[in-house]
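PROTEIN DESIGN WORKSHEET
SECTION A - STRUCTURE
LENGTH: 237
TOKENS:
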């Protein structure tokens, strides 16, 4: 059985623009490894509920929410869903604060290197921002996207919500969000080939929004600490 198409409510301010100036902050990200030019386009969506972030469960059950054989993560998922949908707001906030305190190493919500969903969402949004007008009409020519990444004080470790400040004193400028992010990941000391958001830029479908073809840029490195679900996996050796 074929799956239903994904629908994205995209702002007409974006779809009507001749040029987009993208101004992301460079940080690590628990669900995508790092966030920069590509991930910033989740901001063109009018409602976060339309953004697929992960598939429930572990890979063994067809999901990518957490690794196999992680009992605590498996237990945390239904508890989180119950608190989000049924509990009063103050109970949810209290439980969330407590969970952050006592279970920092807990992998949940698709926050690990096995997340095979969110990179697809981000690629879709970059394709839309680059190539479509209001009403879903294909543009006669791709839209210009200019990116300036603020890495003067970036964020490492538990990004994007609780990053540790990382001073690099850098700004990264580019006209291709894929190339910009591979450059940023290399600067962070990460191997782009181990980050699905970036490794899949070499897929034929990604040619709709990037000219990246697999070259590792030669840039200085200021190694960042990866999020818990990515540590020991994405660092360049």
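SECTION B - SEQUENCE
RESIDUE ASSIGNMENT:
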């Amino acid at each position: 059985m074929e799956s239903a198409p994904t629908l994205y409510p995209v702002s007409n301010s974006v779809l009507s623009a001749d040029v987009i100036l993208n101004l992301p902050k460079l940080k690590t990200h628990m669900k995508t490894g790092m966030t920069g030019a590509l991930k910033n386009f989740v901001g063109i969506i009018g409602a976060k509920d339309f953004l697929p972030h992960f598939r429930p469960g572990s890979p063994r059950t067809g999901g990518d929410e957490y690794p196999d054989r992680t009992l605590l993560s498996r237990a945390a998922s239904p508890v989180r869903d119950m608190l989000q949908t049924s509990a009063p707001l103050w109970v949810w906030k209290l439980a969330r604060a407590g969970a952050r305190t006592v279970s920092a190493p807990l992998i949940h919500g698709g926050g690990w290197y096995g997340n095979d969903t969110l990179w697809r969402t981000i690629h879709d949004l970059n394709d839309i921002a680059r190539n479509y007008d209001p009403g879903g009409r294909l543009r006669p020519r791709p839209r210009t996207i200019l990116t300036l990444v603020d890495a003067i004080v970036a964020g490492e470790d538990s990004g994007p919500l609780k990053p540790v400040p990382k001073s690099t004193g850098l700004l990264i400028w580019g006209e291709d969000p894929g190339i910009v992010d591979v450059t940023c990941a290399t600067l962070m000391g990460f191997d782009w080939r181990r980050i699905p958001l970036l490794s899949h830029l070499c897929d034929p479908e990604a040619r709709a929004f990037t000219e990246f073809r697999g070259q590792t840029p030669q840039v200085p490195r200021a190694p960042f600490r990866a999020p818990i679900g990515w540590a020991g996996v994405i660092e360049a050796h």
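SECTION C - NOTES
The longest strand covers residues 144-158.
The helical segments are 12-15, 71-86, 89-102, 118-131, 177-187, 196-199.
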